[in-house]
Design goal:
With 330 residues, the chain is α/β, with parallel strands linked by helices. The chain contains ten helices and 15 strands. The structure holds adenosine monophosphate and magnesium ion.
Length: 330
């Protein structure tokens, strides 16, 4: 199969919608990362997403809809705080988990009785979803466990020859996956941190919990139980620059090509080293993280990460992805 990278306009939107209605998978731009979408009502199409990615069947997908789509038929309960959160943050990088009405394919929810719904703000995503005019079930458009894609080229690198179409909306401005928020209880609870932060949610909803998986418990957000976002090269992670320099020098002495991924303040103290500079602000770090992880795996034999200093807000999401990419237990 030939994989075409095309702009999200005109005939390409019609083609994308036709592919979706025919049970094919289409990759599309969003403001967070690229998604790999299929008709959420179509069992076989949803299963195709899992097999294309090599994704475990119990890791659920997110139902993506355009802002005009009536989600009331997809969900079974809608607490008042959820309405307030939708008004404050949608369309945008917030995925909300509701009790499912069971209307979409059961494969979307990966065996759970809940459904995750997202309304992206990216004009490219909205144009695609309007053309399809049905819920599009999608995870990130990367092979399972690999780094999430934030350009059409990243998607192509993982799926060339396997999907017919990638709708290219440019680089993703957000850079990390959406915040996933459980809206099935009396108080909303963050299942996955992202650009809509705990602080922002608490301000609108009055309170916001953060889910932490307990030992031996079935995870509420199964994706969080899997190794994720991994670059395909050796990695090491350090709290401070001194240890990172020693690891770098040792790799050089072995004849390897090491590379250090760190925030801008650390990069300034590492002149002469091969660096991937994440930037200085949390938003910059989110935007660059996956770009630089993919860059690092191409050019380094050993990718060395250094812990950024800033905490709270968007850093919750950045640190979660960074730690998981480097296999750091938290
Ligand atoms: P991805 O964006 O590729 O990481 O895939 C979607 C993620 O959304 C999954 O890994 C889960 O963490 C989360 N998710 C999707 N549906 C649900 C759900 N019903 N309950 C909890 N989390 C969900
Ligand atoms: Mg993913």
């Amino acid at each position: 199969m030939q994989t075409v990278i095309a702009p999200p306009e005109g005939e390409w939107l019609e083609k994308a919608a036709a592919y979706i209605r025919a049970g094919e998978a289409v990759a599309f731009h969003t403001e967070t990362v690229y998604g790999l979408g299929a008709n959420a009502f179509d069992d076989a199409a949803v299963r195709k997403i899992f097999s294309l990615k090599g994704r475990p069947a119990d890791n659920p997908l997110i139902a993506h809809v355009h802002p005009g789509y009536d989600i009331s038929r997809l969900i079974d309960a809608d607490p008042p705080y959820a309405r307030a959160l939708r008004e404050a943050f949608l369309p945008g990088p917030l995925t909300m988990v509701y009790p499912s009405s069971g209307k979409v394919s059961a494969y979307v929810s990966g065996g759970l009785l809940t459904l995750a719904v997202r309304v992206p703000s990216s004009p490219a995503a909205q144009a695609f979803l309007r053309a399809a005019d049905l819920p599009v079930a999608a995870p990130s458009a990367n092979l399972s466990k690999h780094v999430s894609p934030v350009t059409a080229r990243h998607v192509y690198d993982d799926f060339a020859g396997k999907i017919p179409l990638i709708l290219d909306g440019g680089a993703c401005s957000g850079g990390i996956e959406s915040t996933v928020l459980d809206c099935t209880g009396p108080v909303p609870q963050i299942l996955r941190a992202g650009l809509v932060t705990r602080e922002m949610i608490a301000e609108v909803a009055g309170a916001c919990g953060v889910y932490r998986m307990r030992e031996g418990e079935k995870p509420k957000s199964p994706g969080m139980a899997y190794k994720h976002y991994s670059p395909r090269c050796a990695t090491q992670f350090f709290a401070a620059c001194g240890e990172a320099k020693r690891a770098y020098d040792a790799e050089k002495a072995r004849g390897g090509s090491p590379c250090i991924l760190c925030e801008h303040a650390a990069a300034e103290t590492l002149a002469g080293y091969d660096l991937l500079d994440l930037g200085g602000t949390p938003a910059e770090m989110a935007q660059r993280l996956y770009v630089l992880l993919r860059e690092g795996e191409k050019r380094a034999t050993l990718l060395i990460g250094i812990e950024p200093k800033e905490r709270g807000g968007v850093m919750d999401g950045v640190l979660n992805r960074l730690h998981r990419a480097f296999g750091v237990e938290t």
